Amino acid sequence: MAYEQMPPDTNEAPKIVGNILTLGELVWIAGFTGVGVGLSVLLYSFVKYPAFILTAIFAIPGIMFAKLKIKGLPLFTYLVRSYRLKHSVTKHPKESPREEVEFVASSERR
């Protein structure tokens, strides 16, 4: 019996961080968390509060954009496509009233 080697499944992105996150997911989470950390550092001199609160406020949407899938699409892709679909529908202008044209049969030529 002959065995055939199956090609690797290329539909899924490879998981590179602890076999949990893809590169795109890592970028989403690190980006939002980095913004939270940056704002925490900038605002710490003005307002004294635990920095992890602002970091968590920004990290939660990052995790949502990275991991949440709606109808099989990542959240960002779903939002972009729904926005484009909503704004791509063009409304037809109301039809202008038609002018009535009167045809007169005459033998005269101008």
Would you write up a description of this structure?
Helix 1 (23-43) runs antiparallel to helix 2 (51-67). The termini are far apart. The chain contains three helices and two strands; from the N terminus they run ααββα. The longest helix has 21 residues, at 23-43. It has helices at 23-43, 51-67, 75-88; strands at 69-70, 73-74. The protein has a domain at 23-75. Strand 1 (69-70) and strand 2 (73-74) form a beta hairpin.
Helix/strand order, N-terminal first: HHEEH
Query: What class do helices, strands and sheet pairing give?
Result: mainly alpha
Average pLDDT rating: 81
Distance between the amino and carboxyl termini: 93 Å
- Number of discrete helical segments: 3
Biggest sheet record: 2 strands, antiparallel
Strand order within the widest beta sheet? 1-2
| Poorly predicted parts | none
Number of strands: 2
Q: Work out the helicity level.
A: 40-55%
Kindly estimate the percentage of residues that lie in beta strands according to DSSP. Answer: under 5%
Radius of gyration equals 30 Å
General shape:
flat
Quaternary form: single chain
Fold topology:
Layout: H1 23-43, H2 51-67, E1 69-70, E2 73-74, H3 75-88
Antiparallel strand pairs: 1-2
Descriptors for this entry?
110 residues; mainly alpha; two-stranded antiparallel ribbon; 3 helices; 2 strands; 4% strand; flat
Summarize the structure.
The protein has 110 residues and is mainly alpha-helical. It is built from three helices and two strands; from the N terminus they run ααββα. It has helices at residues 23-43, 51-67, 75-88, and strands at 69-70, 73-74.
